[in-house]
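Changelog note: in this version the structure field was regenerated for every chain. One regenerated record is shown below for reference.
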Amino acid sequence: MRYRSGIGYDVHQFAEGRPLILGGVDVPHFRGLSGHSDADVLSHAIADAILGAIGQPDIGYWFPPTDDSIEGISSLIILEKAAELVRERGGEIENIDSTLIAEAPKVIKHAPAMKEKIAEALGMDAADIGIKATTNETMGFVGREEGIAALASVSIALPDRS
């Protein structure tokens, strides 16, 4: 086997009248995130990390924001597609590490449920997924509570090319 790693980053602005979906979980908050999909910033960062590890374009290529047929799509479907692309190459997602960056709401208590949803979408064990949370110490757009950012890294095992 050969091992590949990938990194992902995503950010979405807060929006009124939308649910806040993070890691496939509806997190209670008075605002959600703006986006063409459900705007699940955590799932998007993870999907981009997976796609990068296998040398594929980002999620905008696979799920373009100009495609009206996928408006409001669950980002768990995006994760399922990323996992499918890994499996098509005979690979396996070994582990994920991720960080949510938000002043509010406090999200870490939802991490176990997020891990379960993400693991189910990717066909992996929730114990192999790390989710952490931090603030931006009141600096920048995150610090002003204008949105949420997420970072993710993944390790993927692929068959040798020989």
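Spot check on this record: The mean pLDDT is 96. The helical segments are 41-53, 59-62, 75-88, 111-122, 140-143.
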